[in-house]
Design goal:
heterodimer; A: 262 residues; mainly alpha; 10 helices; B: 321 residues; alpha/beta; Rossmann fold; Alpha-Beta Plaits; 2 domains; 6-stranded mixed β-sheet; 4-stranded antiparallel β-sheet; 12 helices; 14 strands; 38% helix
């Protein structure tokens, strides 16, 4: 058990150390969602105008952008594993007295921590962009952010076991980021899109992460902007269960794959 | 300290390691000598828990590599053939990570990092990023890291591959010092003959099998005496004379004839006086591990190397320096 615990914190510590030393990555991780906000926000606000319930587009998109930055930074856990393998450092980790599960937990926890830092930065600058939120709302986002990043980081590590090179895993991840993010109701309410898109979006677990954060920031009664599944409007509780379950499944699968492969 | 019993590893149809058995006692320097692809790294990977043996067992410090990998990992330090440093951080941070991973206490961490960085001459560079280190500095840092948690056995996979002779000599100075001070067991693989000379015992491995295992001196004694090399304008005829008159087994390579003979220094004066063919040069030397490999496999160790490496006569001369 001690090997699981030590593996988790040692590997997570290193992930954070690498993130902190990589200034360009920190800058890019915050700029990227803001770029989306600027382009989509400016492009659509005048066309779309206010949405149902007096919510404007920036307010609607902002929770989605937080989820988006969590998803992208969590998937990077997969890139990190392949980079370590390519640079040889993975062998140093594998031959240390750490459990394989601990190594996977460390990579995912590290990615979750990075995702959390980014989400925190986005929450901190939200008031400057006209998105009002209270401190209590921001705190409530944290557990959602953690569960979402753990699950998606598990997915990233799962993917890393199918790719040989850093370029390979980057392509795989890019291929996955687009549907995961664009079909998650970040930019438009999933109840008001064409049917094929609605089905894909509702099958995408990230949708419920986005909506959970949105319900926390905009309130539960965002009429017409929530997610309806088989006539049932998803509550925050439902969505926490989905994200939590997803995290458990993906982490287990990642540990299983990693232990078998390495 | 290290024991392998009928160790085998297959990759599909390829038998990388075939029925390898040996024992290494505490404090011994044990070498695996063989060409690239002979199964050296595969064996090390099995001993270090990175690869599961197909059949056979191995124990390190009394722990089975399959049943008790965590205890095995705690007992060993590793220096890999390819670099395994984290280039994005400093030398000291690389060691710190290692210390955390092995659960070392704060005091021991501090003492050991200071002791080992000083030993390998990198204490002054501890705050520099590994990215700016030369190949020799990286290898020295890896050795320091491999020894940080005070392992009982240090595994070195081609520890001086690609390093210049001066750096190779320095690394061996460190290893000798460590061994004398800490009673460390060292297990290394190499295809450098001079490096194998540092070992107490050498296992000659070829095509996944151990073909000979003994001290370097006794291995050389098995070859059957000293090596005589002569240059002559008529190599075939000269070889025939050696074969006929002395019942020896000469080998011809260009204008060079080579053969082995017991007590070469007594043999040579008579031989030169009475030899019937013209001689341009003649040399006598003690057998090297190179000759041992040739003796057991019929090939020179470098023949399996990639073509970019020095080959043929040049390569041999270079190796014997």
């Amino acid at each position: 058990m001690i090997e699981v615990y030590r593996g988790t914190w040692v590997v997570a510590y290193r992930e954070l150390l690498r993130f902190v030393r990589d200034r360009s990555r920190i800058a890019a991780s915050v700029t990227f969602p803001l770029l989306f906000l600027a382009i989509f926000g400016a492009g659509f606000t005048n066309v779309v105008g206010a949405m149902t319930g007096g919510v404007d587009l920036i307010q609607f998109m902002y929770p989605g952008l937080i989820a988006m930055s969590i998803v992208t930074s969590a998937l990077a856990a997969g890139i990190s594993v392949v980079t370590d393998r390519q640079e040889g450092f993975l062998r140093e980790i594998l031959v240390a007295p750490l459990s394989r599960a601990g190594i996977v937990f460390g990579k995912t926890t590290g990615a979750a921590a990075v995702g959390l830092v980014q989400a925190g930065l986005l929450l901190a600058i939200a008031p400057l962009l006209g998105v009002s939120l209270t401190f209590y709302q921001a705190v409530k986002v944290i557990p959602i952010a953690i569960m979402l990043s753990l699950g998606i980081a598990g997915l990233g590590i799962l993917l890393s076991s199918f790719a040989q090179t850093q370029q390979g895993v980057q392509m795989l991840i890019q291929l996955l980021v687009f549907p995961l993010v664009f079909l998650a109701g970040v930019f438009f309410p999933v109840d008001s899109v064409p049917l094929w898109m609605e089905i894909l979006s509702k099958a995408n677990p990230v949708t419920y992460g986005v909506d959970a954060i949105r319900q926390i920031l905009l309130g539960a009664d965002i009429a017409g902007l929530g997610v309806t599944v088989f006539g049932h409007i998803m509550t925050l509780g439902n969505e926490v269960l989905i994200i939590g379950g997803l995290a458990a499944i993906l982490l287990t699968a990642a540990v299983w794959r990693f232990t078998r492969k390495e | 300290m290290v024991e392998a019993v009928h160790l085998e590893r297959r990759f599909g149809a390829l038998e990388a390691v075939r029925d390898v058995s040996f024992q290494v006692s505490a404090g011994e320097v044990f070498g695996f000598l063989g060409p690239n692809g002979a199964g050296k790294t595969t064996t090390i990977n099995m001993l270090c828990t990175l690869l599961t043996p197909t059949t056979g067992t191995a124990t390190i410090n009394g722990f089975d590599v399959v049943a008790d990998p965590t205890e095995v990992r705690r007992s060993i330090g590793l220096v890999f053939q390819q670099p395994t440093l984290d280039e994005s951080v400093t030398a000291e941070q690389n060691l710190l990570f290692h210390a955390y991973a092995y659960g070392m206490s704060a005091k021991r961490r501090k003492d050991q990092i200071h002791r080992l960085l000083s030993l390998v001459g990198l204490w002054d560079r501890r705050l520099d990023s590994v990215r700016n280190f030369s190949g020799g500095m990286r290898r020295r840092l890896e050795i320091a890291r491999g020894l940080l948690h005070e392992p009982r056995v240090l595994f070195l996979d081609e520890p001086t591959l690609g390093l210049d002779p001066q750096t190779r000599r320095r690394i061996w100075e460190y290893l000798t010092e460590l061994r004398e001070r800490d009673d460390l067991t060292i297990f290394l693989t190499t295809h450098y003959m001079d490096e194998a000379e540092h070992c107490d015992r050498v296992a000659v491995i070829d095509h996944g099998q151990i073909v000979a295992l003994d001290t370097p001196d006794r291995l050389k004694a098995q070859v059957g005496g000293d090596v005589v090399t002569m240059s002559t304008p008529l190599p075939e005829q000269a070889a025939e004379e050696v074969r006929r008159r002395y019942s020896l087994v000469p080998a011809v390579d260009g204008t060079t004839v080579r053969f082995q003979v017991a007590d070469g220094d007594k043999f040579l004066p008579d031989f030169v006086r009475s030899f019937g063919h013209p001689l341009e040069a003649i040399a006598l030397r003690r057998p090297t591990l190179d000759d041992v490999f040739l003796h057991h496999t019929g090939r020179e160790i470098r023949e399996d190397e990639n073509p970019a490496a020095p080959s043929g006569r040049l390569g041999r001369r270079w190796r014997r320096r």
